[in-house]
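Record 1 of the preview.
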Amino acid sequence: MASVRYLVLAACQRAGLRSQAGWEAEAASWIKKQGDIPCSYVGYRRGIGVAGYDNVSVVFGGNDARASLRRVRDELEKSLDFRSESETTIEGNPALVMTARAKMRVYFVYGGAIQPAPPTPTVDYMYFEAQEANSTVSMTSSLETAPNLEYSEDGVNWQEWQHTTANGTHTFDTLTLTDVGDKVYFRGDNPDGLGTLPEGAEDPLFSHFEMTGKIAAGGNIMSLLDKYTEITEIPTCGFPYLFGNISEENPNTSLTAAAEMPNVTTIGYGGCVSMYAGCTSLTAAAEMPNVTTIGYGGCMYMYEGCTSLTTAAAMPSVTTIGDNGCYQMYSGCNFNMSDDGTTLNFDFPTPPVTAGETTYSTAYEVAQWMGNTNGFTEP
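->
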C-alpha cells in the first residue's frame, strides 16, 4: 500500500503546486521561502494513528493558498479513504489535516491473472536507473569501517549490500541492471557521512560509486546517510568523490543524471567536494532549494569537468558561504553562466557575495570564483 504522504505529494504536484515532503515542524519555514509561488508542504504528524491510517498535514502557500487547497482536496478524493479531515491553519498558513489511507483499488494484470500492484516505496530513496541494458553499480570505500548500506530492487524489500575487504579497501558486490528502466534503491545508517578527513591529513578518505554502461541517479541522496531521510545536514566530508572520477585518466562517463537534494539545508566542510567531478555525461546539476549554509570547501570542484552540464544548480536560499565554499564548482564546464553578460542565469545570492573573508562584487567575479565565466565579457 502506498504511503499516504507520497500520495498527497503526488496529488499536490498534479494540481500544479511546487511541493515538498518532510516533518510538519519544517512546513512554515519552507512555505515562507517560496514567496508568491503556489506551493504545498506535506508533513507527517507525530502521534499514534488508527491501524492502517497515516496522520498527515498539507500546508499551503503562495498567492492564493486557499484556492490551492480546494484543488488538492478534489485530487485527494481519487486516491485516499479518509477517516477524518479538517481545514485549519498552521503558523498562519491554510492547512488540511487528515487521517487517511490509500484506496486498495490499483491492480496490474500479468498473464491474465489479476494481481495487486507492486509495492510503492514509502521514502524517496536514492536510486540508480539503467539507461542502457546490463549497466552495473558497485562501490569502493577507503574508510576504516565500511559504510552501512542496504539495497532493494523495489524500494520495499531490502538486503544488506555485501562487501569484501583487502588492503584497506572495502569493495561492494557488483549489482547488474539487466534491462533499460531497471532500478536499484539504496539506504543506510551513516550519519557521519561516506567520507572522513583524518586528523592532520590533507585529503579525505571516501566512498565512491563505480558504474558501467549508462545510469541515471535519482531520489533523495540523504537516504545514504539516514534511511528515513530526516537528516538535513551533509556532514564534514559527507560525500567527497561520491560519483566523481578519482583519477584524471578515468573520468566517469556512465552517470547521466544527479541524485536529488530536496531537504538539505547545510553542507559541511568539504561535504560535496568533487562529488560529480568528471561526470562527462551528466546534463543537469542537483537542485539545492533549501540549502542555507555552505561550509569551507563545501561545494569545491563539485562539478569540475562535467562537460555536458547545461546549467548551474539553483541555490535560492543560501545565506552563508565559507571560504572556498563554491570555489571552482563549475571549472571545465562549457555552459553559459550568464544569458545577458551581466547577471547569473541561475538562482544564487545577488552580488556582492561574501565567502569567508572574500567578497565578490559582481556577477562576473562570482562566475570567475566558480570556475566558469562563459557568457560574460571580461571587464
